[in-house]
Amino acid sequence: MSTFVIKRDVEIENFPIGCRVITPTKSIGTVIAHIGLSEKAIARALVRFDPGLHNHFRKNDEALILPKWLTLFDYSEHVSRREK
To answer: How many C-beta atoms lie closer than 10 Å to residue 42's C-beta?
Structure first.
């Protein structure tokens, strides 16, 4: 029997415009806008992907992603991995 991790709702304010995030596909991008902030709409973040070897996206590709699927990009974590 497998167990699934249920992601709870995350507030869009946790991802301010300009912050770096990791998407569900492990691609790195920047939040450039918040969409759907009205009472009836679901809040989503507009993420612009960074081009690179592991990101198979063209420059300036964008996607709307629910905040519960985003993770803040931690520079110190990635730098310490590189030093090991």
So the answer is: 13
Structure tokens at 73: 């990009």
Q: Report the amino acid identity of residue 52.
A: G
CA dihedral 52, 48, 24, 17 (to 10 degrees): 130
Element (H, E) at 83: helix 75-83
Question: Cα torsion at 75, 77, 82, 84 (round to 10°)?
Answer: 150
Alpha helices in 1-84 (DSSP H): 75-83
State pTM to two decimals. 0.73
Length of the chain counted residue by residue = 84
pLDDT digits over 12-33, tens only? 889 999 999 998 888 889 999 9
Backbone phi, psi, residue 51, to 5°: -70, 150
